[in-house]
Every structure is written in structure tokens, then in C-alpha cells.
Design a protein that fits this description.
Layout: H1 7-24, H2 30-42, E1 46-47, H3 48-58, H4 67-76, E2 80-83, E3 88-91, E4 101-106, E5 112-114, H5 119-131, E6 139-144, H6 147-152
Bound molecules: zinc ion (2 copies).
Residues 81, 92-94, 99, 101, 114 line the site of one zinc ion (ZN).
């Protein structure tokens, strides 16, 4: 499972954030920008506690009460997905689209990969439509073992 993001991907993620915020008329404050950067840098799902530690090291001393609000903001902008099971956050791999995240999460290494294929989500959307069910959750997570960890077992 690919863990690290490249510098180009991190730049693209931040550029996408600038665009998403200007589209929605919201401000990408230094704190919001830094949190996104940290999630991008992590390259794998990261928890709020670890983000806080990094923020403190950066001198954002007022960050603790606002970290969850900041993460909520980033989720609302479609820049970050929350993995509910582990309560961790991962940068969206396609923040330019409005979409549900479909994410494979490895139980061994904690790595996560977001699928590009949206057909599954579209199918679920059709089922929901037939039932008159309005989907609100942003992420569909599938747990398992990634190829690397599977090979090491
Ligand atoms: Zn996504
Ligand atoms: Zn793994």
C-alpha cells in the first residue's frame, strides 16, 4: 500500500484547497492550511492528537480547541476524509470533484488508499434513491489487508 505522498501531490492538494475555498467563499486560514498540509504530509491516516502535537511544535498554541473545527471545515470542503473506525483523517486524492470517498483501510499497517472508481458509489446512490434515502456520510471504508502486508504474513 502506498504510504507517502510526493511533493507534487502535496502541492496539488494545497492548490486544490485554495480553489475549493475560493469557490465556496471561505478562507483558507494559516491554521486550516497547516492542518491540511500535515494530513497531506502524513501520507496515511492520522489522528487529531498527532496533528495537535505537530501544530504545537509549529507554534499554533491556540490550536487545541479548534483542531476538530478545522478538520470539520476541511471535510466540508471535500479536502479531507474521516475514517470513522480509527477516527483518523486522510487527504482526499481527488479534491477537485464533489464525491463520496471510497477507501480501503489496511488493518495491519493502518495505510489507506482512496479508490478512483466511482461506479460503486453511483450504484449505492441508485439504491438510496429508490428507497428515498438521503445519503449524508462522506466516506465508505472497507477494512482488510493491503498487498504489502499480505505478502509479509
Ligand atoms: Zn476523496
Ligand atoms: Zn498494510
Amino acid at each position: 500500500m502506498r504510504q507517502k505522498t510526493t511533493a507534487a501531490e502535496r502541492r496539488a492538494g494545497l492548490a486544490a484547497a485554495e480553489r475549493a475555498c475560493s469557490r465556496s467563499g471561505k478562507k483558507l486560514t494559516p491554521l486550516r492550511r497547516r492542518v491540511l498540509e500535515l494530513v497531506l504530509n502524513a501520507g496515511k491516516p492520522v489522528g487529531a492528537y498527532n496533528l495537535l502535537k505537530s501544530l504545537r511544535a509549529d507554534g499554533f498554541s491556540d490550536a487545541p480547541p479548534t483542531i476538530y473545527r478545522t478538520l470539520e471545515f476541511l471535510q466540508a470542503q471535500g479536502l479531507v476524509h474521516r475514517i470513522a473506525k480509527s477516527n483518523t483523517f486522510v487527504a482526499c486524492s481527488r479534491p477537485h470533484d464533489d464525491h463520496f470517498g471510497l477507501i480501503f483501510v489496511c488493518r495491519q499497517c493502518g495505510g489507506a488508499v482512496e479508490l478512483e472508481e466511482q461506479q460503486v458509489i453511483a450504484d449505492i446512490g441508485c439504491c438510496a434513491g429508490r428507497l428515498g434515502f438521503q445519503m449524508s456520510r462522506q466516506v465508505l471504508e472497507v477494512e482488510g489487508t493491503c498487498r504489502d502486508c499480505g505478502a509479509a504474513l
